[in-house]
């Protein structure tokens, strides 16, 4: 089945009832609560992305990947779950490719933490403004300055999972899904070899490196300023992974679960807008990886011409 046929099949399906959406939303919230809070620190790669030898690595990336999920007892077969998740991600990719990237002087990222009932934790809201030259402004009660705007005049990196990169390098990322995965994997492998990327247990395992690729792809669809084509490629790359399952329609979009080597990532993706509405995982600007035990986080990232006063 080709991508266009899968997209058409998904769009032709009737909307689920409110009872179904509410039931799946509660199931997703309960699943998210079972994921423990964990901040796993990683030594960040300082060199940025170089995008060399991409073509040679494509076959390696396609052949490798995380372990197939076993599916839940009594649930639909894994293949059916994967197909549904793939369809959702392909629709999101088509939407991302169609929506203009936007423009502005600053890339503005807002991370909002919410409880399981959708109530916002105002004290856990984080905001970042990035200028193309690397200057950064931050605001958040849990950040430096405790709610007051802090300005960093020196270049600050964008985070792609365990990778650090600049605006210029983000603009050079390939818009082909396989080449994009290959570029990320090359940089992760190089960072591990140099000792720049490590876990608390030491050198990352092969499973860790697969996780890092997914984390970088997640950053591309939710947190960093890339072209519409690269965002679409990131969605298609995630759709190609064997460890992505559908959790069904929920409020705000479609629930997806990604089985990493030691964690379960759960996302709510709205395929009609291509935005990630909720997640139990994100990459903090200060580094590391954050999994939420209670509630979720929503991330809004867009261009603006205005800084807060």
Tell me about this structure.
There is one protein chain. This protein has 309 residues and is an alpha+beta fold. It has one domain (3-242, 277-304). It is built from eight helices and 14 strands. The protein has helices spanning 3-12, 18-33, 54-63, 78-98, 167-170, 177-194, 206-222, 228-239, and strands spanning 38-39, 106-114, 126-131, 136-139, 150-152, 158-160, 163-165, 244-250, 253-259, 264-270, 275-279, 281-282, 290-291, 296-304. The chain has a five-stranded antiparallel sheet, with no helix packed on it. It has a four-stranded antiparallel sheet with strand order 8-9-10-11, sandwiched between helices. Strand 10 (264-270) and strand 11 form a beta hairpin. Helix 1 (3-12) crosses helix 4. The protein is globular and about 45 Å long. The termini are far apart. The model is unreliable at 31-82 (pLDDT under 50).
Topology:
Blueprint: H1 3-12, H2 18-33, E1 38-39, H3 54-63, H4 78-98, E2 106-114, E3 126-131, E4 136-139, E5 150-152, E6 158-160, E7 163-165, H5 167-170, H6 177-194, H7 206-222, H8 228-239, E8 244-250, E9 253-259, E10 264-270, E11 275-279, E12 281-282, E13 290-291, E14 296-304
Antiparallel strand pairs: 1-13, 2-3, 2-14, 3-4, 4-5, 6-7, 8-9, 9-10, 10-11, 12-13
Helix pairs in contact: 1-4, 3-6, 4-8, 6-7, 6-8, 7-8
Transmembrane segments: 42-63
Keywords: Membrane, Transmembrane, Transmembrane helix
Protein name: CU044_5270 family protein
């Amino acid at each position: 089945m080709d991508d266009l046929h899968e997209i058409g099949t998904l769009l032709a399906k009737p909307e689920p009832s409110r009872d179904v959406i509410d039931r799946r939303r509660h199931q997703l919230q309960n699943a998210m609560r079972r994921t423990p809070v964990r901040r796993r620190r990683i030594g960040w790669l300082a060199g940025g992305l170089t995008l060399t030898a991409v073509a040679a690595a494509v076959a390696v990336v396609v052949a490798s990947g995380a372990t197939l999920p076993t599916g839940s007892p009594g649930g639909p077969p894994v293949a059916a779950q994967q197909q549904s998740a793939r369809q959702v991600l392909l629709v999101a990719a088509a939407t991302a490719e169609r929506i203009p990237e936007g423009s502005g002087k600053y890339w503005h990222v807002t991370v909002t933490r919410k409880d399981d009932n959708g109530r916002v934790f105002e004290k856990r809201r984080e905001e970042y403004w990035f200028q193309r030259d690397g200057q950064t402004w931050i605001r958040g009660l849990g950040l430096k300055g405790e709610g007051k705007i802090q300005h960093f005049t020196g270049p600050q990196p964008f985070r792609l999972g365990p990778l650090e990169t600049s605006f210029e390098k983000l603009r050079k990322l390939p818009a082909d899904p396989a080449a994009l995965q290959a570029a990320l994997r090359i940089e992760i492998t190089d960072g591990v070899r140099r000792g720049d990327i490590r876990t608390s247990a030491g050198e990352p395992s092969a499973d860790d490196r697969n996780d890092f690729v997914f984390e970088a792809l997640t950053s591309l669809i939710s947190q960093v300023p890339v072209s519409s084509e690269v965002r679409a490629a990131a969605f298609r790359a995630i759709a190609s992974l064997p460890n992505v399952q559908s959790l069904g329609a929920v409020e705000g979009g479609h629930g997806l679960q990604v089985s990493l080597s030691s964690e379960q990532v759960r996302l709510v993706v709205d395929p009609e807008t291509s935005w990630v509405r909720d997640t139990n995982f994100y990459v903090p600007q200060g580094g590391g990886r954050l999994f939420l035990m209670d509630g979720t986080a929503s991330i809004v990232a867009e261009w603006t011409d205005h800084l807060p006063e």
